[in-house]
Amino acid sequence: MEIEFRPDGTYSYTTYLKCLAANCVGEGAYFYNPDSRTLHLRQRIEGRSTVSQYWQLGKMTRDRDVSLIWDNKLVKTSGVNADLYPIPAKQAGEMWTRI
Questions:
Q1: Is the pTM above the cut of 0.90?
Q2: Domain count of the chain?
Q3: Which domain holds residue 58?
Q4: Which of 53, 56, 70, 95 has the highest local Cβ count within 10 Å?
């Protein structure tokens, strides 16, 4: 999965998983709080329902060009299939790469 955060508060993503309830290419709005390291994602699925995810970002290391973020936790969801979209909950424990 690749996700791009834009300075205007929107994001877009592409996933290679089989998509059941939303397009494999999606977009929505986000809010990031650097003090608490929380990330809130919102997405409208097929024009009828909205899903939200709240992520607590974990530890981060910075290399020359890339930073790695791990121990991320999905702390709250709302909406149908919010455990799958925009980011599958199973990826919570995986390492994220920030470029």
A1: no
A2: 1
A3: 2-98
A4: 53
CB atoms within 10 A of CB 32: 14
User: What is the share, in percent, of the chain residues with pLDDT greater than 70?
Assistant: 76
Tokens 């300075």 correspond to: 7
Mean predicted confidence (pLDDT) in 31-58 = 86
**Residue 92 amino acid letter:** A
Residue-wise DSSP of the chain: -EEEE-TTSEEEEE--SPPSSS-SEEEEEEEEETTTTEEEEEEEETTTEEEEEEEE--EEEE-SS-EEEES-EEEEEESTTTTTSSS-GGGGGSPEEE-
Residues 6+ apart with CB under 8 A from 72: 55, 56, 57, 58, 92, 93, 94, 96
Could you tell me the strand order of the sheet in which 96-98 lies?
Answer: 59-62, 67-70, 96-98
Partners of residue 30 on adjacent β-strands: 41
